[in-house]
Amino acid sequence: MRFLLRFASIYKEPVIPINYQYPLSAAIYKIIERADNAYAQFLHDTGYRQSGSLKSFKLFTFSDLSTPFNIEGNSMRLLTQQAELVVCFHLPHAAENFIKGLFMQQQLDIADKKSKARFEVQTVEALPDPLQAYKPHEIINVTLKPLSPIVAGAHNEKKQYEFLAPGDPRFAETLIYNWRSKIATCFDEATAINALLLAETAPLPRLPKSRLLTIKADTPEETKIRGWMNFLLKVTGEKRFVELLMNAGAGVYNSLGMGSVEVEKIKTT
């Protein structure tokens, strides 16, 4: 389930951290936490379990912010008070109105020690489901395009964690491994083990572009991660599993806004 959020800054000249993903994720988490009890009641009233569980409610990702800006040191000075964001949740479609109400007129602070902006959500639009025409168990081939950096990694011979590029064959392997973990979480271990899952990367006319991001900048918990954009990800699997990948994100650090994807092309096997 994907939503387009349109923000408006209450500041005339908003300035946000260049590494805005962590504070934006924290702002979304605050909204989710406030809604936990209400969502639990929603589940009780509608009878949803499994893909509608509270755990699934927190399986989410979001795209890069869409707004013009200039870089000023470690900050982004927005050239307009308007911004857009795609937020994805792995939830039943019956929860659509609940999610809309959850975000409408909410305020989000995107800030660190050096810059801060406050935004108000003006509109929440449910985006069309590109997989709607397919049955849950139908095998489909989908080409996906990243809306935010996809992060994949593996431990090298020195037991150090190494971030992988799309050209590395381990990149797709680690994405599939993580995908199976999500299936195990939302379905069960046996379903995850037996699921047919394929993934491969394909280049665009421009070379893939990496982005180094800092999480919890200027704190003792500061962490740097590297993700990739400007490439295509071709995946094969049952419609319900591809839907999970799109809703929860590809790769790791999804709740920090990594691995958000959109459909470029679909075909059935």
Please explain how this structure is put together.
By secondary structure, the chain is α+β, with helices and mostly antiparallel strands. It has helices spanning 21-46, 54-57, 96-103, 169-186, 189-194, 239-248, and strands at residues 2-9, 15-17, 60-62, 69-72, 75-78, 82-89, 107-111, 116-126, 139-146, 153-155, 161-163, 198-203, 209-215, 223-229, 231-238, 261-268. The chain folds into two domains: 2-126, Alpha-Beta Plaits, CATH 3.30.70.1890; 139-268, 2-Layer Sandwich (Alpha-Beta Plaits), CATH 3.30.70.1900. The strands form five sheets. The chain has a five-stranded antiparallel beta sheet. Strands 12-15-9-16 form a four-stranded antiparallel beta sheet.
Quick rundown:
By secondary structure, the chain is an alpha+beta fold. Helices cover 27% and strands 36% of the residues. The chain starts with a strand and ends with a strand.
Characteristic terms for this protein:
globular; alpha+beta; 16 strands; Alpha-Beta Plaits; 269 residues
Instruction: Examine the secondary-structure arrangement and name the CATH architecture of the largest domain.
Output: 2-Layer Sandwich
Q: Could you give a short account of the major beta sheet?
A: 5 strands, antiparallel
Topology-level CATH name of the largest domain: Alpha-Beta Plaits
* The level-1 CATH class of the largest domain: Alpha Beta
Helix content: 25-40%
Q: Which blocks of ≥5 consecutive residues have pLDDT under 50?
A: 47-52
Total count of strands: 16
Please tell me how large the radius of gyration is.
18 Å
Order of helices and strands: EEHHEEEEHEEEEEHHEEEEHE
| Beginning-to-end CA distance, first to last residue | 24 Å
Instruction: Tell the overall outline.
Output: globular
Strand order of the largest sheet: 3-6-1-8-7
- Structure annotation, total helices: 6
Oligomer: single chain
Strand fraction equals 35-45%
The count of domains is 2
Mean pLDDT: 89
- Helices and strands: which structural class? alpha+beta
